Amino acid sequence: MSIPSDSRQKIAMLTAGGLAPCLSAAVGGLIARYTDLSPETEIIGYRSGYKGLLLGDHLTVTPEVRANAGVLLRHGGSALGNSRIKLTNVEDCVKRGLVKEGQDPLKVAAEQLARDRVTILHTIGGDDTNTTAADLAAYLEANGYHLTVVGLPKTIDNDVVPIRQTLGAWTAAEQGALFAENIVNEQSANPRMLIVHEIMGRKCGWLTAATAKAYRERLNRTAFLPEFGLDRAHKEVDAVYLPEMPLDIAREAARLRERLDAKDCVTVFLSEGAGLDEIVAEIEGRGEVLGRDPFGHVKIDTVNVGKWFADRFAPMIGAEKTLVLKSGHFCRSAAPNPDDLRLIQGMVDLAVECGLKGVSGVIGHDEDQGGRLRAIEFPRIRGGKAFDPTVPWFTALLDQIGQERPH
Questions:
Q1: Known catalytic residue: 157?
Q2: Among 83, 137, 86, 142, which residue's Cα sits nearest to residue 110?
Q3: N or C: less crowded end of the chain, CB within 10 Å?
Q4: Model-level pTM?
C-alpha cells in the first residue's frame, strides 16, 4: 500500500495506564511504519502519558530513533513512561500540579495538542485512555481544529468491549505460567502447604483462566519421577477462582482439604477481583478507609485479596503454612512474546493507515462484526468485559482438576 505523505501532518504518541507487554513494541512499530510510509513526517512522544501532554513534555523521534525503532520491540515497559491521569478529575490534576486552579485539564491538553501542531494522536492504553483521547478530539473539532485519534488497546486483563484480544494479554498469561512454575516448588519447603497465586484481573477472570491453562500445558511437557517423590500432583493446580464464578467457600474448603490430605499441598490460582466487592464491604464495614485511584476504583493492592482468601481457607483445610504470591508486576512488565508481536504488528499497520487517512477509532478485532480488524468507533469502547467461564477450554480445565463447573 502506498499513501502519499503530507508534510503538514504531525504525529504524537502516548502510553498510559498500567503496564502491559506491548507498550514499547507498539511505539516502535508505529515509528517504523510511519518511517516506511511517510518518512519526512514529524513524530513526537509525550512522556508519562497524559501528564506529559498537560505539561507539554515530549521526546522527538530523530533519524537515529527511526533507524533503531526495532530495538523497542524487544523490551517491556514503556520507553515513553506511563501515568494514571484522568483529565476529567480536575481536583486530582490540580493536586498533582498538572494544571492551575480554575483550569480545565481537557482544555489544557487540547490546547497543547494544537500548540504542538499535532494532527494525528496515537494513544496506547485501555478504555479510559482511548475514550479520553476521543474527548480531546471532540473538543478540538468544536473549536475548529481537526485531530485524528487512533488508539491501540492494551490491557493484560483482555476486558475491552468489543475487542476480541487486547495487546499484551497473551504474553502476560505465558509469563504468569512461568512465574507459577517456579513458586509452586515452595510446596516442598513445608508440610501441609497452601500456595495462593494471585493474578491480575479486577473485573475479568480471563488472565487467571488463561494463566492456569498455559501453566498446565507447561506441566504436560515436563518429566516427573513419582518413584522418588517428584509427582506431578505436587505441582498441579487445585483450584481456579474468578470474579465471574460464585464461590461456595465451605464446599471448596472440604474439597481442598481432601487434596491437602492426599498430597500434602494445595495450589490455588486466584484472580485479584474474585470476591472483591464482598471483601471491600467487609473491610469498610469495620470502619477502615481504602485508598482509591483517580478513576474512583479501590486500590486493589490495599485490599490484599490473596491474603483474605488464604486466611480463611488455611484453618478450614488444615494448612500448616500459607504463601501468597502475586505475579502481576512480573507479567505486565515483560517484553511481548511472538504471538503478541504478530498481533501488535497487524494492529499497528492498520493504525498508521487509519491515521494517514484521517479515520479515528480504536484498532481491534471487532466481536460485533465477525472479528474483523478495524477502527472501532470510540462510543462503543468500554472496559469491564466479563470472561465466559463456560467456554469449553476452561470447563475442560476445571474437569481435569476436579473443580465443579459454573452453572
A1: yes
A2: 137
A3: C
A4: 0.93
